[in-house]
Amino acid sequence: MNSNHQSNYKLSKTEKKLLRKQIKARHTLLRHEGIETVSYATQSLIVANGGLGNQVSRNQLLPVLEKCGLVDALLMPPNKPYSCVRYKTVEESKKAYDTLNGKEIVDDLGQKIILYLNFVEKAQWKELGLQALPPGLKVIEEIISSEDEKMLLESVNWTEDTDNQNFQKSLKHRRVKHFGYEFHYENNNVDKDKPLPGGLPDICESILEKWLKEGFIKHKPDQLTINQYEPGHGIPAHIDTHSAFEDEIISLSLGSEIVMDFKHPDGMTVPVMLPCRSLLVMTGESRYLWTHGITPRKFDTVQASKGHKSGIITSDVEDLTLNKRGIRTSFTFRKVRQTPCNCSYPLVCDSQMKETPASFPESDKEALQLEQDYVHRVYEEIARHFSSTRHTPWPHIVEFLKALPSGSLVADIGCGNGKYLGINKELYMIGCDHSQNLVDICRERQYQAFVCDALAVPIRSGSCDACISIAVIHHFATAERRVAALQELVRLLRPGGKALIYVWAMEQEYNKKKSKYLRENRTSQGMKEEISNDTSVQELLVKQLPNVGNQDSAHSVSSINDLQDGGCNSRNVANSKLPIHTNRTSFHSQDLLVPWHFKGNPGKDKRVEPFGPLGSCDPGPVFHRYYHVFCEGELEAACRTLSNISILQSYYDQGNWCVILQKV
């Protein structure tokens, strides 16, 4: 399809379909990535569907692009379903546009993928600055010979008698065996009083003695876990239990290389290549504070340069490709701890946390202060950025509003940027929020809104036909204040009036189905899907550093300058003792702080995340918002404490507990 076709040229049916797909790709890039394409020819093209995120490697794509001219650069960001190619001349770029739009290629999984190309002014990716391995982490290559590797792999009998105490049935995604002590996955610990018979395998004893003698390790382990991973399988990010094992934890990779992700509680993720026959040694901070895990996928994003073996996988988008995984067997050695852990990280240490329990508000005054520091001030600061991420109404809320009779007076208590205020033009809707800046955004959109406290709404009692409270009541810090917020909604309703209430659910996996919040923690599989980061980390009770993974922001990049950069709740975060949640993971505490990674200060309704820089090391301050996530039945029980209501419906909706109640 010629990019300069004449206006009187009639497109064929196939060309029309291609044009529609091309335009859709253009809109998807703009909406999800902030990538703005242009209608005129340039040297640079965005290649939608031609990315590492949907299993297209550099070796597959580059020869296709080079048929159209001399490629100056091919930029392939990690985990994204697109790439950017820059040609030497505009003419070569135009040839690629005309030749390759709609071209079908086969990805590394053998699936057909169709490329869609659009011009861009230029690629603005920045190369990530040189990172260091997490403190206390080292990778020793070729620590054993290929002969020893073969001997170790052959020594593992996966089919032995199930009566053997070292035998353990396969876990969901891997086979596992324990020696020395059995690791109990239900509590992530070992029974120190019940060692397994036989100790460690004899074949391991001589290897460990050699490593000790050569100074690779400092202590001789007494526990071994052998895991076998098929391609596509992984292990959730975690920290080995402090009270269970001593400082040094080592892992030998056999059979295939793998990329292991290390994540600091401030959000910094460091992908580390572990080659075949290499030894990973974790001590100090890398063992006690950083999570480590393996993302379940069949391909790893790796350095394309042949000289790169172990160590960090950088975000140099000109030197990334895909590497197909093989069957990997890991021998992880630990030394069982016999005394409580007294490490330097007390707020992630299960031994020390027992002595310093998390502190929650014990009075209404303390609750008010917590909400002031971790709710009101935060939203006032992040209002524009928050608004830029809140543009798609939820279907069940739209359904509730559209089912109300024409002319109904409806109050949206905690209206945010007002995204529900204009859903049904047949209603008289008014919104209120504690944040002046969010209310200002509502007014810019020509909605009726005012500032107030959700516990004291200045609207006459019994005057509303309906109320909605979406993602508000979970910000109140005590059960009494949450009930008071519900009572205030009921006060506003006329008899027969209805209220719809949404709160975050503790259960982010319900009826064996993960919520959208958890499902977005995966690699994008093409332009037809939502584009999101590939992160997988467990919730972590962390020392109150200023930045951890982000529930709402699309990217989770590191910044340890919150205290200096004026994060509005930074003055108290070091003292709160509340657990900080890690993005896109299940909740393990009902009362917690959820970080918000602040990105810029956009104008009216502008999206924040521009095309690049990927892996930027200066994303701005991080703010922490207080949440009380509700367990199943908790919202309904709170509503039933009110004397003048009936519950019409109680349901679960994409990680939220929801109630529709009626005033009687």
Question: Could you describe the 3D structure shown?
Answer:
The chain is 22% helix and 25% strand. The chain is an alpha+beta fold. The protein folds into three domains: 107 residues, Alpha-Beta Plaits (2-Layer Sandwich), CATH 3.30.70.330; 209 residues, Sandwich (Jelly Rolls), CATH 2.60.120; 168 residues, Rossmann fold, CATH 3.40.50. The strands form nine sheets. A seven-stranded mixed sheet has the order 24-23-22-25-26-32-31, sandwiched between helices. Strands 7-16-13-21-11-8 form a six-stranded antiparallel sheet. A five-stranded antiparallel sheet has the order 12-17-14-15-19. The longest helix has 25 residues. The relative contact order is 0.11. The N terminus is likely disordered. Its cofactor is Fe(2+).
Keywords:
664 residues; alpha+beta; Alpha-Beta Plaits; Jelly Rolls; seven-stranded mixed beta sheet; 15 helices; disordered N terminus
Q: Please give the number of β-strands.
A: 32
Low-confidence spans: pLDDT under 50, at least 5 residues? Answer: 3-7, 126-130, 522-575, 602-619
What integer value in Å does the Rg equal? 28 Å
Output the number of helix runs.
Answer: 15
Q: What count of domains describes the coordinates?
A: 3
Q: Helical residue percent? A: 10-25%
Report the CATH architecture of the largest domain. Sandwich
The main β sheet shows up as: 7 strands, mixed
Helix and strand content put the structural class at alpha+beta
Task: State the end-to-end distance.
Answer: 65 Å
